[in-house]
Specification:
Elements (H helix, E strand, L loop, with lengths): L5 H23 L6 H27 L1 H22 L7 H7 L2 H11 L2 H23 L5 H24 L12 H27 L14 H22 L4 H29 L14 H5 L2 H15 L2
Helix pairs in contact: 1-2, 1-8, 2-3, 3-5, 3-7, 5-6, 5-7, 6-7, 7-12, 8-9, 8-10, 8-12, 9-10, 10-12
Amino acid sequence: MLDLTPNTLCAMLVVVAMLVIASVTQLLLRSRLSADGYLELKQRINSWWVMVGVVFTALMIGPTASLIFFTILSFIALREFFSILPVRVTDRRLILALYLAVPLQYYWVGMGWYGMFIVFIPVYLFLLIPFGLLMLGETKGFIRAVGSYQWATMTTVFAISHVAYLLMLPAEENPAGGGVGLVIYLVFLTQFNDVAQYIWGKKFGNRKIVPAISPNKTWAGFLGGVATTTLFGALLAPWLTPLPWWLGLGAGLLIGLAGFIGDLTVSAVKRDLRIKDTSQLIPGHGGILDRIDSLMYTAPLFFHFLVYTTY
């Protein structure tokens, strides 16, 4: 099993307590919400219980279970991405081959082979994808296909694998939280940033940022959410990470900004493809990509911020 420090156990209990409060609030709001509004809220909270339960179980079982979990997560996300892309018939064989990149990338993570982990997809796979498409002999739509497949593997596999690699960093460098503490810090702040921006936007948002892409994104929601996430980043950093509070401010700010960009980027993808959600896999939330859109941007940025400031 992974070594869970008192701080990480306490953080898990805090998250569970927040879900309990959300569930109780949901019951209290039943008479004030419409039937559809209450059903959506209930589905979202129930889905959060399942997602938190799965993540925490994997983290508590140990590193192997955690790696398997993130491997499956990337696989489902990559499959979901390919399911919404306008894929050429001739490319199906290449897409099947690209799924092999998922276990390979997490194999490098499990080995702790940082050199291969950091270059396998953005260097080797980036060169192999256009070569593979050339071998299929179809030139129409070639540039779009190359860019789509490269970006799909970068976001769903390469970016998300940075979360798993946090568990491989030397535990002695973070006695407060260990690898699990780093994962909880990143994932909690990323998801908290989404919620904070939503609440600030609902309460004070009037001026839209990019209404053509995401009508619900407002300047008040963006600034309020980033400020709140930055504050919590500073408060939680000494508790779960090796970062002092002032570097925690930087980490929180980075997560707030990157989370907003990731969310907005996937919204643009859905607008382009004229879909509301990437799938219906998670009741009340949509698909895997709808849930990890912010994490695809915050994970690699936080990882390298942490490595270059601490390890």
